[in-house]
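**User:**
My hope is that you can spare some time for a protein that puzzles me. This is the protein in question:
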Amino acid sequence: MRGRQSHVEMPTIRRLAADEWCGYREIRLRALTDSPDAFGSTLAVERVRPDAHWSERLSTGVASDWNYPLVAVVAGELVGVVWGRIDPDIPQTAHIYQMWVEPRCRGMGIGSMLLREVVAWARKAGAKRAVLSVTCGDTPARRLYDRVGFAPVDDPKPIRAGSALLSQTMTLTL
């Protein structure tokens, strides 16, 4: 899609619906395949989950005002994803998870669009800060979060148990 910007449909950002669990599973697995070092979970863990898991995960998520699963869509295809979540016991903090954009669609501003939308939702919900984690290093994701105003907090920690990779927690005051 890059390089053909004038002929590419503009991306749209929208909330996932409960019946889109197959599409959600597919984009989540693509994200884990493309960027295995960017997430707390792994492809090996996620790909063996039964259909009922994916259906319940998404239906539970969309049934709650405390969750905000979003996708970016270009020409009818899901090309980006992010999930916002607020713990009702700690409503001042919104957590941002699963941020990913299809490699061929990077550079189109989709990551910024997804992030702006989930941050706007968090503000509207009354959160005072947004929190996310990013793999340490000079990566496009880290540069995006820096541009939006997220700042690192605390010391980096292993991305998942037993991993030598580190992730950095970052926060944005809303």
